[in-house]
Amino acid sequence: MATLSAEHATFSVHRALPQVELLDAHYVEHAFGRHTHDTYVVAAITAGVEEFHHGGGVERAGVGTVALVNPETVVTGHAGVPEGWGYRVLYPAVESVLDAAADLRPAGAGTPAFSTAVAHDGELARLVHAVHGAVARDDALAASTAFRLLVARLLRAHSAPRAVRCAASAGASAVAEARELLRARLVDPPGLEELAAAVGARPFPLLRAFREAHGLPPHAWLNQQRVAAARSLLRRDVPPAEAAVAVGFVDQAHLARHFRRSVGVPPGAYRRAVQERTRLPVAARGTVGA
Q1: 0.85 surpassed by pTM
Q2: Contact, 117 vs 67, CB < 8 A?
Q3: Which residues are in coiled coils (predicted)?
């Protein structure tokens, strides 16, 4: 359990929920920079207060509340009080939520989205703790059951139609082409001028439209894609140093800096946790900072 005196982070994945990553952490000085997740984020606050930028505003999540973040949403995260914050987090892949929701919604209902950033919902918090507890006990049936009940609770009490960002200035098609070009060139990305020329746009209008569509400028979005690609490689047991170079980071230290700011644990710890399918303690204070 988190204490108020030190930072710690424990990352885990369980065989019963292979598309759901779990984090049990307490942070004081560590701060998450602007980043996105390709998963949902469901975080039950267990101590202190987390403060995070979300949707153009600042949210505060205290003990008993659950912070909710949709995929591809730009967020930050830092302590809202001097003693920091503790939380238990689930990072379910979109596919895992759609699968769990299949029996609860009509066909073609689309991808679910959260309607609030901070839920004051004791039952939802209880279900987050239930998933974590079942994983800690290595109880596959309880873990998968609690997760499906959690998705049902989210759909019933905290879902809304998924909002779609509209690109401005350079046009949605130019932004989409730029995004795919960057994704295809993680290791050798073009400069802004080359990128704009490739999609038939001017540099500044493309920059403005890209930020409007994705919440991040192209270079920051690219680093998020690199982190996501590195996570995929680490899940396949590729060493962090090799993963770093493969996705376009200069070296392992460069990957670690971005990885910790987005994921909250070092890439080596993430790799071991995924391979061992167990709760892996991450060394305390000093190893989780940006």
Answers
A1: no
A2: yes
A3: none
78-105 per-position pLDDT tens digit: 999 999 999 999 999 999 999 888 878 8
Residue 101 tokens read as 């929701």
Within 10 angstroms of residue 229's Cβ, the number of other Cβ atoms is 18
Non-local (6+) Cβ contacts of 43 within 8 A are: 50, 61, 66, 67, 68, 69, 87, 88, 89, 90, 128
Range of the domain at 159: 8-163
* Same structural domain, 13 and 147: yes
- Between CA 167 and CA 144 the distance in angstroms is 38
- Residue 265 CB contacts under 8 Å (≥ 6 apart), including other chains: 9, 11, 23, 259, 273, 282, 288
End position of a domain, from candidates 119, 138, 163: 163
pLDDT tens across 153-173, in order? 999 999 986 655 544 455 888
